[in-house]
Design brief:
Layout (H helix, E strand, L loop, with lengths): L14 H16 L8 H13 L4 E4 L2 E5 L9 E7 L17 E3 L2 E3 L3 H18 L8 E7 L22 E4 L7 E5 L1 E10 L3 E2 L8 H14 L13 E9 L5 E2 L2 E10 L5 H11 L3 E4 L7 E2 L5 H8 L4 E4 L12 E3 L14 E3 H23 L8
Helix pairs in contact: 1-3, 3-7, 6-7
C-alpha cells in the first residue's frame, strides 16, 4: 500500500488503523469545522467508526463509542479529543482546507490542534476495540466546541457517558504528559464616564477610568500562589471605546483573560476583583476549572515508566470540564496551534499512535494486579 506513511510499525496489525486514521485526518482538514459548525467533521468521524463496525452514539456534534467487550466490573478510560477548529488567520499563505504533505509535514487547519491527537486516539481505540483481555474499558469521545468552551461540546455529554475512572485528553504536547493546567475565565468589563465635547472641559472620559482598572489587572499579584500551577494570571486582551474623534466617550469596554489555579475558587477570585476595581463586569459562560492529577496515579506512573515527562501546561483545554483524574497528552506542538500555515509532522502522528498504544499496554500489569483500581 503506497501511503504518506512510508514506514511499517512493529505492530503489523496496527498499521492499517494508522493509515486509515491518517487518511481520515486529511478529510477532516478538508471539511471546515469552526466551533459550533462541526456537522461535516462529526459526520466523517461517525461514518469512519461505523465503517469499522463500531456502534456510535451522537449528541449535537459529539460522537462517542465503547470497546466491543465492555465489562461494567472494570474501570473505564476516556480517550477524548476535539474536531472543531479556530478560524484561519489572514496570514495563511496556503489553503487552510487543503491537506498538503510536504517535507514530512501535513499542512492544514486543525492538523496540529488537535487533528493529530484525535486520529491517533481513534487508531488506538480501534487497535483495542475487539480485545477480550483488556483489564479496562475504553470510551472514545470525539467532541465539538473545545475552542470556544461551548455548551454543546464535551460538557454536554458528560452525564450521558458511562462512569469514567480517568481520562486522556488529546492535545498537542509533544507526547509528554500535562499533569496540571490552569483554568480559564473571561471577564467582559465596562467603565462608565460621561460624554462631552473633546475641545472643552466637558465630560468624564471613560477611557481614563478604564485605564486605572487595566493597570490594576496588569500589575496585581494574588497573595496565594498554587504550589503546582503557580500564580493566577490576568491579561487584558481587548479594549473598545469611542464613537467619534471629538466626543469624550461615556463607555469603555475591555476584556480580561483570567487563568485560574487551585489556590482560589472562582467565587473568591471574583470577590477580590470586585473589591479592587471600579468597572462593572460579567463572567462569560464556559468557565473552565483548573485541573491537576496526583503524580502517584497509575496513568502518570505508567507514563513516566515508558519515558514520558510530566509538566504543567500553561494552556487550558476540555480537561476543565472533567471531574475525574486526567492527563493531557498528544502529538504535535502547542506553539503551532492557531498559527498561519498550521502543520504537524507525519512522524509525530505515527509516534503518537505508537505511544498511546504503549501507554495503555503498560497499564495492564497495574490494573490486573490492583482490583480496586476502578476507584482510583
Amino acid at each position: 500500500m503506497k501511503t504518506d506513511f512510508e514506514y511499517q510499525t512493529d505492530q503489523d496489525s496496527f498499521f492499517p488503523y494508522q493509515v486509515e486514521s491518517f487518511e481520515l485526518l486529511k478529510k477532516l482538514i478538508s471539511a471546515p469545522s469552526f466551533s459550533g459548525q462541526e456537522e461535516m467533521t462529526a459526520n466523517l468521524i461517525e461514518s469512519f467508526l461505523q465503517d469499522n463496525y463500531v456502534f456510535t452514539l451522537r449528541k449535537h456534534n459529539n460522537i462517542w463509542c465503547y470497546n466491543l467487550h465492555f465489562d461494567h466490573t472494570k474501570p473505564t478510560i476516556l480517550l477524548n479529543s476535539h474536531h472543531d477548529t479556530v478560524r484561519p488567520t489572514a496570514a495563511y499563505t496556503k489553503n487552510p482546507f487543503e491537506p498538503v504533505v510536504c517535507d514530512g509535514k501535513l499542512y492544514g487547519l486543525g492538523s496540529n490542534d488537535a487533528g493529530g491527537a484525535l486520529v491517533s486516539l481513534i487508531a488506538t481505540f480501534l487497535h483495542f476495540f475487539k480485545r477480550r483481555d483488556l483489564p479496562f474499558n475504553i470510551c472514545l469521545a470525539a467532541t465539538a466546541e473545545e475552542e470556544n468552551s461551548g455548551e454543546k461540546g464535551l460538557k454536554s455529554i458528560l452525564d450521558d457517558l458511562l462512569p469514567v475512572s480517568f481520562a486522556i485528553v488529546g492535545e498537542p504536547t509533544n507526547m509528554q504528559m500535562a499533569i496540571a493546567e490552569k483554568g480559564s475565565m473571561v471577564l467582559d468589563c465596562t467603565a462608565f464616564g460621561r460624554s462631552g465635547h473633546a475641545a472643552r472641559e466637558e465630560g468624564d472620559n471613560a477611557i481614563y477610568r478604564a485605564l486605572k482598572d487595566i493597570q490594576w489587572f496588569s500589575s496585581y499579584v494574588f497573595p496565594i500562589e498554587s504550589r503546582v500551577m503557580g500564580p493566577v494570571k490576568m491579561t487584558v486582551t481587548e479594549v473598545n471605546a469611542g464613537i467619534q474623534h471629538n466626543i469624550v466617550p461615556a463607555e469603555c469596554k475591555f476584556t480580561v483573560d483570567v487563568r485560574l489555579t487551585d489556590a482560589y475558587t472562582e467565587k473568591e477570585l471574583l470577590h477580590i476583583i470586585q473589591n479592587h476595581t471600579f468597572c462593572e463586569f460579567t463572567v462569560r459562560p464556559g468557565v473552565l476549572k483548573p485541573s491537576c492529577i496526583n503524580q502517584l496515579h497509575p496513568i502518570v506512573k505508567t507514563g513516566l515508566s515508558i519515558g514520558r515527562a510530566a509538566y504543567i501546561s500553561p494552556t487550558s483545554s476540555d480537561q476543565g470540564w472533567l471531574d475525574m483524574p486526567s492527563v493531557k497528552m498528544g502529538p504535535g506542538e502547542s506553539a503551532r496551534s492557531h498559527t498561519a500555515d498550521e502543520f504537524i509532522y507525519l512522524e509525530e502522528i505515527k509516534e503518537g499512535m505508537d505511544i498511546y498504544v504503549q501507554l495503555l499496554e503498560s497499564l495492564f500489569p497495574y490494573l490486573v494486579n490492583n482490583p480496586d483500581s476502578k476507584n482510583q
